[in-house]
Amino acid sequence: MARAAATKGQTRIQREKTEQILEAALEVFARNGYRGATIDQIAEQSGLSKPNILYYFDGKRAIHGELLGRLLDTWLEPLEHLTDDGDPVEEICDYVRRKLEMARDYPRESRLFANEILQGAPHIVDELSGPLKQLTDEKARLINGWIKAGKIAPVDPYHLIFSIWATTQHYADFDVQVQAVLGDKAASRFGAAQAHLEGMYRALLSSKG
Description:
The protein is mainly α and 209 residues long. It is built from 10 helices and no strands. The longest helix has 25 residues, at 12-36. The termini are far apart.
């Protein structure tokens, strides 16, 4: 995950402390949400004192903002890789795979993002209506181009993207539920999910009827 502004100009030890705080804060925010999280909880999780936390960050909002900034950079990257270079169905299935890998590898980040959205996105609404919308508009135009060229079946490009977000991020945001329902099959849930989702999207996009 790309480092954001918090570590610029810091010494190695300061960078390590900053990352230690952010790692602890990610756990706390993902578990409790922004409103339920406190500096005391972050201090306890990180093993640092509260004054030490406040030496590096002005407060809870600053820590939360740094985490969200990093998260948005990471969240946009898979969609940026959706290009006109390859077969459209393969490009979209690759996007599904990358999003599912993010759900597997970054579950706390996904829950942090979900918590922010559920609260009305007070800290990132400008980014959602700015960079995220611009990138989504760009990829919707790309998908529409594929449809007009007869390369994939007619679909609403925005709702296709929304459905990919929903079906992949579910495996992070509702992982407890997924594992409870699958029981003994839970260990292979991401491999099974990838096979299912790829088959579903291939059928949707390849159908010309």
